[in-house]
């Protein structure tokens, strides 16, 4: 009887100790992280790191007070082999339980960047490098041979086949995407946004998708006032119908590789397939990545008989039907 009581006492004591231990572990796991900074702390879990390695890294970064609690909680939850690699961002109001859950689910930190309408691939590459998302040189090298869709065609006269097909938008990406994966993300977004209805409209106008994108890039670089986009698109289409050179200043700026306030006659005589003063028809490729407004302007241009336009000092365009009217307008806006 005494032996039985002794065993029972030890069992109760063991259960009490284990319960106390588990309660303490759960309590500790539920407490907010305590570190000095009020800003989020970012850590990188490398591929192949064990639960012990991760615990040591978190302790080193001051995200947990000791590694034992972390390792015990991870093993108790059966998550020792479920913690995923990636870049994570932890805030001071989080607790160890939340951190472990994020690591197990792979809730990595995302980096955000915005591609403005009218950016070129060179500008996008520089932007991504400034955000520490990609290497500019590698991005441009990948773009030289990137053709994920049939309508993105290779052309010896074009530096980047995908120029014009990287959709301007705000993107959220995890750390570690390759330059090709970033290009694919942007071209996939273009393909998704250029809907079947839009493709039908292009066919109805006798334009290929590529031709629409080239024209849209000219509109994007010429337009400063939103409502002028369909008018500018209308002028370009009218000039094409009448077998007139497009004479787009934006193509000369593209050739120069930098913005120039006023172009000279000599600038318009630069030998280049992109020179729409010297060459008839469209340039061999887009000169920028146009936004949806410019693309829609080409698909739904203003019904107009304008053939000329010129911008005043405020960037507002003035449109003319004849060359004589155009000369008068140039004189007026120059005053």
TrEMBL record:
<dbReference type="GO" id="GO:0071555">
    <property type="term" value="P:cell wall organization"/>
</dbReference>
<protein>
    <recommendedName>
        <fullName>Endolytic murein transglycosylase</fullName>
        <ecNumber>4.2.2.29</ecNumber>
    </recommendedName>
</protein>
<keyword id="KW-0456">Lyase</keyword>
<dbReference type="GO" id="GO:0008932">
    <property type="term" value="F:lytic endotransglycosylase activity"/>
</dbReference>
<feature type="site" description="Important for catalytic activity">
    <location>
        <position position="222"/>
    </location>
</feature>
<comment type="function">
    <text>Functions as a peptidoglycan terminase that cleaves nascent peptidoglycan strands endolytically to terminate their elongation.</text>
</comment>
<dbReference type="GO" id="GO:0005886">
    <property type="term" value="C:plasma membrane"/>
</dbReference>
<keyword id="KW-0472">Membrane</keyword>
<comment type="similarity">
    <text>Belongs to the transglycosylase MltG family.</text>
</comment>
<dbReference type="InterPro" id="IPR003770">
    <property type="entry name" value="MLTG-like"/>
</dbReference>
<keyword id="KW-0961">Cell wall biogenesis/degradation</keyword>
<dbReference type="GO" id="GO:0009252">
    <property type="term" value="P:peptidoglycan biosynthetic process"/>
</dbReference>
<keyword id="KW-1133">Transmembrane helix</keyword>
<keyword id="KW-1003">Cell membrane</keyword>
<dbReference type="Pfam" id="PF02618">
    <property type="entry name" value="YceG"/>
</dbReference>
<keyword id="KW-0812">Transmembrane</keyword>
